[in-house]
């Protein structure tokens, strides 16, 4: 069956709940909500419904699910969130690209790819789910042995394709593998303990006890659904397939050790974190990679050791500090920084098991927690801002702005969040619950609506300037998005950004931190004092008022107080200007007890008339106002006339459509009536047909009854005959039973005689077989003792090293290295052959014919012997000489090997073969003749080998 990733690799409800608790602030999560459905979208929708609108700001269930997947796409996320060991990998691996266009991947994500390679299964769905859980447990066990989380390796698609081919071969030959005795299960007691002991014997690769505990729980659940006694074949198939796949994966892990061992020192790999437009490199990671590659880091090390642990360089700074040669040697892998809607994706550090995020992402998460989750500024008094200042001073102590953009460790993040809870408990919180943003999805929010919403949230009490700032934010956002009104989701974002802006105005260190991390633009509409120079205010007709003593606005001074100061100064300046104008005209206005403000700003032409007609002035104003109203009414009338014409046109179109539909209804009504008439006619015809059919069936039924009565009489007669035959048969069976008793007694006597003979023969054969096996075991143990005492691998290492050190000839060194690789491979094969032979003889029921043959001990090739003698001026010593004593002649029907290395098929006795005199390997004559057309050397040891038919021996 095909393994669909959407169906088999879906996150479980238990793991989804753990992930949600890490993603959302605890204040937003309801105390009780159902998370039991297999579909994660339904579980998230249940969470949204149970939150009473608190999670509306996070979007729909699909948006939250996508953000959760983005949040957990980092290596080792299942361990970080404490997912079950037997749960399959449910996240997608991320492929990165180096600056040399080479694909790279985290080592932990390589195991996710190994799981995804298993694309088909010979089992049923529930069996496949259990087997995949077992296979994933093995992969996670291997993942735990990795040295660090930040190491990356190049992705090899060829090796992955070969592994996929091997797993597909298992499926094609699965029925043959089931017959293997090593994969058989014995069911005696049908208990869990009996089954788990056999499972551990079949799966020796699972070494960690913690994995055993998880697998025991998994197996118990599977047995609860599928009892052992009724499903023996199910357990055989499940255990066999999972073991075969695990063995295939283990071979891949061992063959590709370079992918999973600590990173090599020859080619350092350094990550470039792409946080557009910034390209950042962790200083300590760069230093560590260059040290492992043994590069010169004397100058760089002095600078880095003075920096905080998670400080960064930009790519340009690194290029200015490192030589061009080292820059070409280092493999820079571009790693984009991903951020979910309200949480940053963790990044692995060079310290084992530790993660970090950008300090700017941490700050916005912290502010979002204060503003959105705790709604702190909707529930406190302005006098309590001192507590908030103390908290920001505490956060400031953990950062040093002089070193630019920084990362922050997740353990420090958790500590600061815990400290935030402590400060939050110190505040005097209003007993009345905070208000929520009202939903105006259909109407939308205007500038006035936004200001009213801020007052509804009571944010103007602690931030008096927030309503005035909202006007600028509204204009800025609507122009950017090219809309007239804001949606509810837009208002959620703008309210949060407005509060951050107000906090930055009150806490200079917060504004300094935002500017140092180059994230001023992340606050939509925020104007950083260091990024933008404020413009001087200008008033038409009056020169700009210069205030002599300008003081910076502190936290304790409110915006309203400053407004009043500026207004008073401006009014005094206007009074002085008017007084100077009156002096120039030499006019002495009459003193009055109280002068109206409107009289101070009367133009000069009006003042020339000492007694203007107030009625005429008001009439003129009323006339102008009426004229303007009349003009507006005309415009409105035109608009209404146009709307009336459009509505009349629409009404006519609707009337025409209604008439057309009425005509269609009449046609349909006539059509329905004609169909009804045809149906009635068809019904009457069917009734006539049914009556005729019933008459015919009745006639046939009577005829069948008569025939049945006739057959009943025949049956009665046959029963009488049967009873008579039964009586005869019973008498014959009695005679047969007596004869069978006599035959049985004779057989028992004969069997006893045969058993006595077979016991005698078996005893003699067993003694002979035991002597043969004992002789083979003694010879094999002697060979093992010689092999272990003489340590042939060390000897060949010394010999080849001596040749490489002595000789200056590259060809001689190449021969020595090739001989070492060949000899090491052959020695390992000989050691396995010894071990396999001894283990097979531990089985008490084995026969001498079933004992595997011991392969020949390898000897040196002729070219190596010659090279050794030419280089060291003496003959090459024999290694494990007692093991080289072999019979000089081989019988024609006896072969040294069971497999031809050319065609990879087993050899058959009395078959034509060709034998290499150097390595003693034999090949099919037809196969080796095809090989000679390409090369005239031995396929195993590369020694010279010729076809005897083409080059016969000289007499």
Low-confidence region ranges: 534-568, 584-612, 886-896
Q: Total helix count?
A: 32
**Alpha-beta classification:** mainly alpha
Note the gap between the termini.
65 Å
Q: What fraction of residues sit in β-strands?
A: under 5%
Oligomeric composition of the shown chains: single chain
Structure description:
There is one protein chain. By secondary structure, this protein is mainly alpha-helical. About 8% of the residues have low confidence. The relative contact order is 0.03. A hairpin with a 6-residue loop joins strand 8 and strand 9. Among the domains are: 71 residues, no CATH class; 165 residues, no CATH class; 79 residues, no CATH class; 89 residues, no CATH class; 69 residues; 126 residues; 64 residues, Herpes Virus-1 (2-Layer Sandwich), CATH 3.30.40. The chain contains 32 helices and 12 strands. This is RING-type domain-containing protein. Keywords: Coiled coil, Metal-binding, Zinc, Zinc-finger.
